[in-house]
Amino acid sequence: MKLIIDDIRSCEMCFNTSKNEMFLNSDWVIVKNYQDFISLIDKVGINKISIISFDHDLSDFEVIDDIKVEFTGKTACEYIIEKCLDSGAKFPDWYVHTDNTCGRENIVGLILNYIKNMDGVDTSDFRYFHKGYVNGKFI
């Protein structure tokens, strides 16, 4: 399953901003918020996800114990890492299509740290202009 987490974008919009042709395929599943994201991951299982494309700003808030909590693409990424750790699965291929540069750095840094230390991926070729890891290559 190819999965996009984004509150606004369609596949076409992801393509228009990224110019990455992988978004031209119509077989992407789009989830709009964090709760739908974790529900889908729990339902299908982490091993059924072939690639995830992350937006950072999901406009997804919840009040927990009188504190407003924001759920972001980074929160979703942390959930994927927990699932991988629990199941022993490798982190799926990934792409970060967000316009938020700080959010992008946070998501990418989290993933790179995980795949380097847990999946044994050589991250030394990663450069600031890369936005993902697909089919064994940074793109």
List the helices and strands and how they pair.
Elements: E1 2-5, H1 11-18, E2 28-31, H2 34-44, E3 51-54, E4 60-64, E5 67-71, H3 73-87, E6 93-96, H4 101-117, E7 132-134, E8 137-138
Parallel strand pairs: 1-2, 1-3, 3-6
Antiparallel strand pairs: 4-5, 6-7, 7-8
Structural description of this entry:
By secondary structure, the chain is an alpha/beta fold. It has one domain (2-138): Rossmann fold. It is 37% helix and 22% strand. It contains four helices and eight strands. The chain has helices at 11-18, 34-44, 73-87, 101-117; strands at 2-5, 28-31, 51-54, 60-64, 67-71, 93-96, 132-134, 137-138. A six-stranded mixed β-sheet has the order 2-1-3-6-7-8. Strands 4-5 form a two-stranded antiparallel ribbon. A hairpin with a 2-residue loop joins β7 and β8 (137-138). α2 packs parallel to α3 (73-87) and α3 runs parallel beside α4 (101-117). The longest helix is centred in the C-terminal third of the chain and has 17 residues, at 101-117. The protein is globular. The two termini are 19 Å apart.
Give a quick summary of the entry.
By secondary structure, this protein is an alpha/beta fold. It is 37% helix and 22% strand. The chain has a single domain, classed as Rossmann fold, CATH 3.40.50.
